[in-house]
Structures are given as structure tokens and as C-alpha cells.
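I hope you will forgive my troubling you with a question about protein structure. The matter concerns a single protein, recorded as an amino acid sequence and a row of C-alpha cells. Please examine both parts with care and let me know of anything in them that strikes you as inconsistent. Thank you for your consideration; the sequence and its C-alpha cells are set out here:
***
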Amino acid sequence: MSTKEKLDTSRIPQHVAVIMDGNGRWAALRGKDRLEGHSQGAKSARAVVEAAAEIGVKYITLYAFSMENWNRPQTEVAGLMSLLIHSIASQLGDLIKNNIRLKIIGDTSLLPADVYTQVNDAVVKSQQNTGLTVVIALSYGSRYEILNATKQLLHKYQEQPFDIDSITEQDFSNYLYTKDIPDPELLVRTSGELRISNFLLWQISYSELYFTDVLWPDFSKEDFFEAVYQYQQRERRFGKTSQQIATLK
């Protein structure tokens, strides 16, 4: 029996977030240029999106480019941007055909004009789709997102009296990039690294974390199904006891 066949279809996570790590190491192990690793990683991203759609995941967020990644060598950054444009352009038809919606989170003002135009065009053309939503975290940093949300909340109330204690978590969440997206139930990180790397810090407060040694370019559909399977073996208590959870079932 394959891992996919072992999945409990009633317990598929609604939202899976993925830190796609290991492209550079994959390339170095093979004596290839880092961009070759990123190119192979793009193929893995496509396979994982297909896997998520197959089992009924509603949202998948892929950490494609962090705010810190702008500090990488300019040749690598330019190569990544070129790869991004090519990937979106070549896959847009399939996204539309398969009823997949594309959404971008991050500080898109930092993107080169041609990249922003291409990305925004794909977002607009797919916005009416009702199947899987693929969220690309691009020029994204969670601390920046939280700080920006705080500033927006303060701007909202700076000219009118308000009760500080009346502000709720939902009020704050409404200013995050993910305001229309449920929090991830599962966070996957590849390549054996055991850290979060400034990714969705607010949103993953109760996510199950799954780490694998598999480098991202080698991460397959079967690896994705295994991550979901392992998620299904865990008891999600949200601060309650096992007895309380059993009573609610």
C-alpha cells in the first residue's frame, strides 16, 4: 500500500506550509551551479503542488524567497528572479486548467518591475479559481510582516480614541499578509535544518512541525504524502489534555 493510500481522507490538513531548503547543497553535491539546484527545486515545487491538489489540501504556502535572500550574490538573485518568471509563465496555463489560484505574500515593492508584472498578471488571471490556493512567500519576512501589521493597526487608531484592551488577535491578524488564509496545520522543512527561518511566526503557533533530511530538489510526491501521514499520527491538543480531546470526539 502506498503512503497516499494510507492517508485518512477525513484528516487532510487544510493548509500546509513548506520551507523549501537544500537547493544549493543539492547542486554542490553534484558539482553543479547553485542555479541548477534552484531549477531542479522548481520541479519539486510543481510536484508538491500536484500532490497537495490530489489529496484535497486547500492551501499550500511555499517559502520561495525571503527578505534576507536579497543579500545573496546578485548573480544568484537575478537567476532566481529569471527562474521565477519562467516558472510562472510556463505553468500559468496548467494553473488555470486545474482550477488553482495563485497568491503572493511578501513585500512585492522590492521586486524588479518585470518580475512584479509577471507575478501580478498570474495572480489576477487565476483569482477566480476555486480549487487549491498556492501561496508564494516572495520577498517575505515574518518579523517585517508583524512589524508592518503593528504600524497599520496604530495608524488606524492614532486619530481616534480607543480601548487598547479591546484589540483582539483577530484584529491584529487582519493586517497580516495572510488575513484571508487559515493558519497552517502542518509546516514542512527539508534538508535536515531544524529552524523556522523567519517564516510565518505568528501563523504557525499551533502548527505541527515536520523536518526531513531530504534535500528539496529530491523531495517527491511520496515525501509529501509521508509528511501528511506523519501529521495524521499526531494528537493536536491546542493546550488541552488528551482526555479532554477524547471527550470532544
User: Anything to note?
Assistant: The longest strand covers residues 59-66. The mean pLDDT is 93.
